[in-house]
Write a structure and sequence with these properties.
By secondary structure, the chain is α/β, with parallel strands linked by helices. It has helices at 16-23, 36-49, 75-86, 139-146, 175-185, 190-207, 224-233, 235-240, 245-250, 256-261, 278-281, 286-289, 299-311, 356-362, 434-438, 449-452, 456-473, 492-499, 528-531, 535-549; strands spanning 66-71, 91-94, 106-111, 120-125, 155-157, 161-164, 167-170, 293-295, 316-318, 323-329, 332-338, 343-351, 380-388, 396-400, 405-409, 424-432, 484-490, 523-525, 580-581. Strands 1, 2, 9, 10, 11, 12 and 18 form a seven-stranded mixed β-sheet that branches. The longest helix has 18 residues, at 190-207.
Length: 582
């Protein structure tokens, strides 16, 4: 998730964003904003945020080669490829798996009780189950409208249930009702909650304010005047964007239990040890302000739509196709070489693979790698997929025992096609830190991790953690175990196998790249490496990568479908009932 507008400037973790905002946004509207020195400093900071200003490659030349070669068919690669294909480019996309989507694919499994001789077909989502940015004018909605696909997905609102040491909470669909509920449960914190929600809404509006000028995709302005305009219109962004989120909470709240409750959505960013900044957390409050949604037919349907969009625009999506390396000539990316040895020549390359792969063989020897940090892996996860002989208890439940958090999803309640009549699906998720994830792989010099999956020690460990997670899940659904007719667990090793993320990373690298542009001309990076995890964030990153190759691609006039952001009378983004199934 996160992550969104202006976030890339703080992505490196360096003090650049803080000074950027203090000099730029913080002085918006002040006397200093019209003096020469601050504008000069701001211009330098803008240049520092884009360290590789190579000229956009010449695309759409009509040559016999492809205009763009895309490595990886995750949502980042598919979105960038679809946007570029919609802009007139001939796109070739290579995906190592036999289905598109990366960690946003779904899969079917047959379960049942052997003694009954029954067989039941269940569908599970590999990863995403709760999509933000679907509201009218949001990034995901804007992508689908631009591609003419908005009417081909039916979205279901995903409710949240929180089970915590201080009680159970069913989050209302309306953010005002959520605020009222919290104020009733924590009356001593009522005024603080009102102030906190007011700040969160103002920050959210500021972070998304650039979307109107970029076809619905928020991003970082690339000129001084635009930054100053944001500072004048949204001064709160200058104050909080790059500060830790817990400081914003502490400025309004004192109750530790309430602060932990308001931090529940950090689970969508990483393990319990993460300390996100406001620029990462505020976009997640879109789940409260506008809702998160699930596509009927499974999240893999979203990926398949994007793949078909590329194919329908004279592009090619080749599955079960691994890439050996990027072809670099005279400092320019000019195509890719497949594992089969086939060379795909192209005018530019989009890399949707883990950035670590660029250091581990995708780039040929001698190619510059400076500026491609970080490559350290981010968090991974352990997931337990269950087919049940009854409906699951809730579409999305967060179980917080005060130490660990487990997310339990039951998407068959939103989409009955995921399970046979009278049955259901449930998936339990626990995020693992990079150190915890690394411990699931064999020691360096040991067996190949792909063979490690058959090791009895590894299998016993998977089974033991699955049992502990079932213990936790039975808080939400008592006697869960007796309803299970299919069961499969996924460890960091599993996620590494299907997603090729470094150490099974499911949220991208530990840090963020400041720009989609790589140091090699014509090479851009898409995916969670720039804006962070989650479908919405990855769609924004893909739009940035596509625009880096085709300046002006995101111009508002090219948004041929739909309208700009629509607001209801209460100020919240409205959802068109015809498009969203409740």
């Amino acid at each position: 998730m996160v992550l969104l507008a202006l976030a890339a400037l703080g992505a490196t973790g360096a003090p650049v964003p803080a000074s950027f905002l203090l000099v730029g946004l913080g002085i918006g509207g002040s006397v200093l904003a019209v003096t020469r020195l601050p504008r000069l400093l701001l211009a330098r900071q803008i240049a520092a945020a884009h360290p590789h200003p190579w000229p956009a490659p010449a695309l759409r030349t009509g040559s016999p080669y492809w205009d763009v070669a895309v490595i990886g068919g995750g949502i980042g690669g598919l979105s960038a490829g679809a946007l570029l294909a919609d802009g007139g480019c001939r796109v070739f996309l290579a995906e190592q798996h036999d289905v598109p989507g990366g960690l946003c694919h779904d899969f079917e499994r047959v379960g049942g009780r052997a003694e009954d001789g029954d067989k039941r077909l269940f569908r599970f989502d590999c990863g995403p189950h709760d999509v933000s940015g679907v509201w009218p004018g949001g990034p995901v909605d804007s992508l689908l409208r631009r591609l003419g696909l908005a009417d081909q997905l039916q979205w279901c609102r995903v409710p949240h249930r929180y089970l915590t040491p201080v009680g159970s909470f069913d989050v209302p669909a309306c953010w005002e009702e959520w605020l009222t509920m919290l104020a009733a449960r924590f009356p001593a914190s009522r005024e603080g909650l009102i102030g906190l929600f007011a700040d969160l809404r103002a920050l959210f509006e500021g972070l998304y304010s650039t979307a109107l000028g970029r076809g619905g995709f928020p991003g970082v302005p690339d000129d001084v005047d635009s930054f100053l305009a944001i500072g004048r219109a949204h001064p709160i962004v200058a104050r909080w964007m790059d500060r830790p989120f817990h400081e914003l909470l502490a400025s309004h709240l004192r109750d530790p239990a309430l602060i932990r409750l308001m931090s529940m959505l950090t689970t969508y960013l990483g393990d319990a040890s993460v300390t996100p900044r406001c620029r990462e957390m505020v976009p997640l409050f879109g789940f409260y302000l506008h809702g998160g949604f699930y596509p009927r037919g499974g999240t893999g349907g979203f990926a398949r739509l994007l793949a078909d969009s590329i194919r329908g625009r004279a592009g090619q999506v080749r599955l079960s196709t691994s890439v050996r390396r990027i072809l670099v000539e005279k400092g320019r990316a000019v195509g890719i070489v497949l594992e089969s040895g086939e060379t795909i020549r192209a005018g530019s390359v989009v890399c949707n693979a883990d950035p670590a792969a660029l250091h581990q063989g995708l780039l040929p020897p001698g190619a510059t790698r400076s500026g491609l940090q970080p490559v350290a892996p981010g968090p991974s996860a352990f997931a337990l997929h269950l087919g049940l002989d009854c409906p699951p208890p809730h579409p999305t439940g967060f179980i917080d025992d005060g130490t660990t958090r487990t997310v339990v999803t039951g998407t068959s309640l939103l989409d009955p096609s995921a399970a046979p009549p009278g049955c259901g699906t449930a998936t339990m998720w626990r995020i693992l830190s990079p150190d915890e994830a690394a411990d699931w792989f064999p020691e360096q010099g040991g067996p190949d991790w792909r063979q490690w999956r058959a090791n009895p020690v590894y299998r016993a460990r998977k089974a033991a953690l699955a049992e502990r997670m079932l213990d936790s899940a039975e808080q939400l659904m008592p006697e869960l175990r007796r309803h299970i007719v299919y069961r499969a667990a996924a460890s960091p090793v599993t996620f590494a196998r299907y997603g090729l993320g470094n150490q099974g990373s499911v949220y991208g690298p530990a840090g963020r790249l400041s720009s989609p542009r790589a140091p090699i001309s014509g090479l851009v990076v898409a995916g969670s490496a720039t804006y962070g995890p989650g479908i919405e964030a990855v769609v924004i990153a893909a739009a940035d990568a596509a625009q880096a190759l085709m300046p002006g691609l995101l111009a508002p006039q090219s948004l041929r479908f739909g309208s700009p952001l629509e607001k209801s009378a209460s100020g919240s983004m409205s959802v068109t009932p015809a498009r969203v199934a409740q």
